[in-house]
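Consider the following assembly input.
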Amino acid sequence: MAYHFDFSWIPDYSGVIIKGLAITVELTIVGGLVGVTLGTFCAWARALGPNWLKPIVGAYVELIRNTPFMIQLFFIFFGLPSIGVHMNELVAANIAMVINLGAYSAEIIRAGIQATPRGQFEAGASLAMSPIQTFRHVILVPSLQRIWPALSSQVIIVMLGSAVVSQIAAEDLTFASNFIQSRTFRAFEAYFLTAVIYLALAILLRAAMRGIGTIIFPRRRRA
Amino acid sequence: MLRRHFLAIAAATMAATAALTGVAHADALADITKSGKLKVAVPQDFPPFGSVGADMTPQGYDIDMAKLIADKLGVKVELVPVTSANRIPYLQTKKVDLVISSLGKNPDREKVIDFSSAYAPFYNGVFAPGSVAIKSTADLSGKTIGVTRGAVEDLELTKVAPADATIKRYEDNNGTISAFLSGQVDAVATGNVVAAAIIAKNPPKKPEMKFLIKNSPCFVGLNKDEPALLEKLNAIIAEAKKDGSLNKISEKWLNAPLPADL
């Protein structure tokens, strides 16, 4: 089993790899920020929102959580044009990431909200806080702190899941490795390199989420 | 010294024997007529040229072509399913008389077998709906073209497309076809066989051939030094082109008339 690694193609394809890396990072940042914001809204709507809104948000969350990401992506990119909704593959990929993470993070954040003892709502009200202030300071921040590790994992899952956007010709990191493989036939090296980059991205992203956590939750309890 | 002489004589004798037996079996055409059977290597995994139908019998362009040739020779056809890797060895070892298996011509193959005249079109080109004006690579400027990643069209088009043309590379032919049908790309670069498969589904957007990327028509393969068989084959193909029977096969399997220059 003597296999000779040949990475001599890297200089020729460094542009493709860097572009792919940039697109994967862009998808993760937009998907993460907008997706978690959407998820927070949906969590509020499902746990504390008006009754007419609950079933609508519930339907969205269940629809997304019970269908494959790739089908959602294909539906947006290949399906919607049939009813006149055209968008390029990057917009389609971003939208798919946002609605996917939105639904999953909604359930994670909702779990945090519902774990907040009822008495804290009342404590907020008795301190003359407005409902918005109560939600922000008494409910949301402690909830997020409680579920932050789960949420971090979900963001990483979505980042890794973004690999499928190469199926609609979005030129992300996975596209770059497939492209290199189809030109150099160096499958082992191409996927080896990409796997290492994804691993590094995941480790960095987890560190970044931890960093954001220490900023949002200043009085984070240490175990 | 003596030993070397012996070897030389042995080699010469063997060569002479081979030549003699070769002469004795030179006329494959006579053998086919005598046995009343034409053995043809056909594909079984390459629609529309050759695949297995719902009733488990082989069907396709190549199968119809094999039947046509056997008909004209007045013999029965025996179809031998082959893969693209073993079709030439089958011919060389005389397991079959002819290879009709979407076989393209290239110098390496020409060294080992002979080819008839072309019987089927096989080419890659840029396809787009009739309303899109494209005549040459220069017209691709500013347009988005879908290709299947790593396919011949991808490699060729990447070389020749203008700098401001966008090439979108999809995972497989289905991705490329979906992108074309949903209007995500202005044009696709693909094979005539794929274009035929799209037209067969009768979509609102019909791909029309705009210009050629690579032409590699299919030929019937036969063993070398069979002048009688080769001549007969070429006569059959020429006649089938003239009387429209080959055109009928093309319309049936490729949804397009036989190109005039084939």
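The mean pLDDT of chain A is 92. Ask yourself how this observation constrains the way the partners meet.
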